[in-house]
Amino acid sequence: MTFYNDIYPFYPQQRTPFIFNLSQLIVILVFLVLACSFLVILPGIRGKGRLFWMFRIVLSLFIGVVTVAVNFTSDWATGYIKTNTTYKSFSNATVSAEIGLHVGFDGINVTLKGNPVRQLNETINYNEMFQWTEDYKEDYVKALERGLPNPILYIAEKFTQDSPCGLLFQYKYSGQYASATMWTAFCCWLISNVLFSMPVILYGGYMIVTTGAFIIFSLISFATIHNVPYCTISLGTVSLETVFGGSFWLSLVTGILCILIGGAVILMDVFIPQKLKILFTANEGDEDDDTYITECYLNESFLEKDNVLPLGDVRVSVPVSIKT
């Protein structure tokens, strides 16, 4: 055991796995604040419209947070294997490890975790990010200088610009188009919320359908990577292959949900337009509204005098007889 507790001060420390992506955390916190703000004013809404209003706000915020957050996730495509592989370059020592590849719109995330974690007198638990939104080659060179384990460098090398696999161009450009389309869907979501708060509910339905359509277009754009031959990534005796991850399927569900909501609004506008207006107006249609005015007091002296109509010079005398 060294003076520095097994940490060598003249070498960079190994990067430990992150707990949560900072950009995702910011997006989720912003939408949580919006949700709490709307829930605070919920008690001020009377009648049966309160529950529907709350359901509409929560559902709309869910669609919004998904369309924004998936732009910063790293699990649009994922791959995972368990294998025995060499740990360092120019060494025959092997380790039993779990290797993961996670692909997002802005780069890849490679994980390496030993099974068990402590092997070869080292803690094998890595989580490395390589972003092609900046300079991917520079990130790869820095990884070489840091002496990262051989499996991480091998996978990262497959995504370099000079690699014959061409994985960088497949994932980078499909991710760029998918991200741009997803941001367009977010803009459509904003417009639909504005239209739903105005007496043009039908156009809000059209825009929420458009939101779902752009989300589907984003998925189609990203899915084009499977239409080209995939480069084999072999580690030990196992090949690493990627499949669609959680962000892809969550976006698919959200897109279908938007289309169903918009279709329901359009059909209700055609067949039952009055009930549609009641649903989107919190206070309309409540039977209790008529019970708030229980008494009315008349000013006798005012009613006995001549009153002037606002639209002309005609003076009308209103006789009033009061019984005592």
Secondary-structure element sequence?
A: HHEEEEHHHHEEEHHHEE
> What is the overall shape?
elongated
H/I helix tally: 9
Helix content: 40-55%
> Would you count the extended β strands for me?
9
Distance from first to last alpha carbon:
104 Å
Largest sheet entry = 5 strands, antiparallel
Q: How much β-strand is present in the residues?
A: 15-25%
Family: Belongs to the DUOXA family.
Pfam families: DuoxA
Membrane topology: Multi-pass membrane protein
Keywords: Glycoprotein, Membrane, Transmembrane, Transmembrane helix
In a few lines, what is going on in this structure?
The chain is α+β, with helices and mostly antiparallel strands. It contains 9 helices and 9 strands.
Note down, in words, how this protein is organized.
The chain is of the alpha+beta class and 324 residues long. Helix content is 47%, strand content 18%. The chain is built from 9 helices and 9 strands. It has helices spanning 22-40, 49-69, 136-146, 150-158, 167-196, 201-223, 246-271, 273-279, 300-304, and strands at residues 77-86, 94-103, 107-119, 122-131, 233-235, 238-240, 243-244, 306-308, 315-317. It has a 5-stranded antiparallel beta sheet with strand order 4-3-2-1-7. A two-stranded antiparallel sheet has the order 5-6. A hairpin with a 3-residue loop joins strand 2 (94-103) and strand 3. Helix 5 (167-196) packs antiparallel against helix 6. It is elongated, with a radius of gyration of 31 Å. Residues 1-14, 283-294 and 311-324 have low confidence and may be disordered.
